[in-house]
Amino acid sequence: MLEVQDLGIRFGGLHAVKDVTASIPAGQITAIIGPNGAGKSTFFNLISGFYQPTSGRIQFAGEDITRLKTHEVVSRGIARTFQTTTIYRELSVLENAMIGHRVRTRAGLLDALLRTGRERQDVQGSRDGAMAALTRVGLAAQAHLPAGALTQEGQKRVGIAMALSSDPKLLLLDEPAAGMNPEETVNLMALIRELVAGGLTVALVEHKMSLVMGLADQILVLHHGQKIAQGTPAQVSRDPAVIEAYLGSHAHGGQMGQTTPAETTLQKGGAHA
Question: Would 262 be classed as within a structural domain?
Fold first, then answer.
């Protein structure tokens, strides 16, 4: 579905992402992992149009989207969430989800000022699209509530609904389980599986290795902005370069100071990026 070729970006003299060639297959869950500062969120920012690459190419569904702006990328079918849940706490759950649908509307400022038929049609379309997204994330019954009144898990689901309401083909989740307890994390994993079973493709950046190893069909590993491995969880967990770069060698105690062998730790999902 999405392919990047020799993708890179420089900030001054620093290569935040360098020469990454990788793919995100349709209908699967791809996890992007790596140590802090590996370039994971920057990689997301590149493919979602928030950053313009200094080298390489991005193709989505056969179209070159390398130089498209963010709203153009969204209109092509790529939506994302952020590390920090970006919702409007004082607005209702439904109103938050409607915001995400506005990229699909046609009415302009004049339509809004004059309350034209096109504006009314777009508002109704946004409402319908938002309710469909809320139904997918299990929040239809809470649509009337202020978003800030929901639990942490509920607010995460609102953020996902905002992305889903733009009707994406590819959903990018940036640390979706951040701040969630184990039970909430399990619920989130179930939701992501349901979305993919419903036809969505998902790519996620995540620090909780239990989620990554239990959820991902494939894993892309970045280190110092470069790809060092891509494969199934089983393949990646045995890759010597991943064990050394991502978790640190056993001799050095591991990145997080583990005293158990790094490979075992990765397979069990017991370390953080």
Answer: yes
